[in-house]
Amino acid sequence: MNNQDRKSKKTLIRTSQLEKKKNGKE
To answer: Compositional bias of type Basic and acidic residues: which residue ranges (predicted)?
Structure first.
């Protein structure tokens, strides 16, 4: 369970960074 939570956090951060890049480009 702890491992999955960590993976979720990593994915969330990655998505956040991707959206930041998108917003920065637009």
So the answer is: 17-26
Please tell me the pTM assigned to this model: 0.54
**How far apart are the C-alpha atoms of 1 and 26, rounded to whole Å?**
37
**Sign of the CA dihedral 16, 21, 24, 26?**
negative
Sign of the CA dihedral running 12, 14, 16, 22: negative
Summarised one tens digit per residue, pLDDT across range 2-26 is 899 999 999 999 999 999 888 887 6
Retrieve residue 13's tokens. 């951060």
